[in-house]
Amino acid sequence: MNAPVATTAYAVSSVGDLVVAIPADQVGSIDEVPAGASDLLDVAALLGQPSRAQRRRAARLAGRASLTLLVGARVDLVSVEAPEHLELPLLLAEHYRGLGVSGLLALTSGVACVLDPGLLARARRGPRSAGG
Amino acid sequence: MSGDRSSFVVFRVGSLELGVPAHEVVELARLGALTPVPLAPSHIRGVLAHGGRALPVVRLDTLCGLPASRGDDDLRLVVVSAGGMTVGLEAHRLLGVVEVADADLRPVEVTASPGLRQLATGELHRATGVVVLLDVATLVEAARPRDRA
């Protein structure tokens, strides 16, 4: 009998040339962006990516009513096994954390950035939060 | 390294021949698919998942302020480690491991680029040209993105 493989679920979305992942247990809901919505944190802008998608999604974070992320047009729920979790490389750790990224995932499509709500809130207030 | 001899891994980036101490080289590998690092300086080519870790890949020509040189599609990685940081150096061609007597190592004399001189510890003058020997710790520290706050 095979031992169970520990997995973690993530809400995964493409923004520009990057893939971002939010731990699923921290996502309250994924919605269409409501008309006239303001006070959304545009993840593409935060990460310096072009916002190509016309119809994007809003990821409302659980327990953080004030933080709703504007992500890509599509959000998939992906189970990631433990070995696919990568620590931030020391050379870039401070840089990534300043952008709200706490870790990386080795997905078949490439390396995804794991968004951390606490770091994102800080990044939003910082100089890198373009337009936010 | 033993006694008065030192070994260097020598590789080519564009027209430059560069060397790093062999004992600071973790491995040599083929460059796989890279993922860009958001808002990173241009010398950070990206990261790749390699051996269970995320490996940053650095372009040395850009890091030294030189024009970016084009290599073919079969790029190599010289993975080095210093100060707890491991990075992959993009190489257009691996030229091998060279063992030299320390007496044959020259100070930085003919390297013209100021950016490259800052990373260099010496030169090795060979019949085929000059190999610029790099200090890995200095290189890694120079590659670290600066907080733009």
How would you sum up this structure in a few lines?
The complex is a heterodimer of chains A (132) and B (149). Helices cover 14% and strands 41% of the residues of chain A. With 132 residues, chain A is mainly beta.
Shape of chain A: globular
Number of structural domains of chain B: 1
Query: Strand order within the widest sheet of chain A?
Result: 7-1-2-10-9-8
Counting helices, strands and paired strands, the structural category of chain B is: mainly beta
Q: How much of the sequence of chain B is in beta strands?
A: over 45%
Report the C-alpha radius of gyration of chain A, rounded.
15 Å
Strand content of chain A: 35-45%
Distance between the termini of chain B: 42 Å
Question: If you compute it from the alpha carbons, what radius of gyration of chain B comes out, rounded to the nearest whole angstrom?
Answer: 15 Å
Sheet of most strands of chain B: 5 strands, mixed
Count of DSSP H/I helices of chain B = 3
| Average of the residue pLDDT scores of chain A | 87
Report the largest inter-chain contact.
A-B, 28 and 27 residues
Low-confidence stretches of chain B: none
Oligomerization category of the chains in this entry: heterodimer
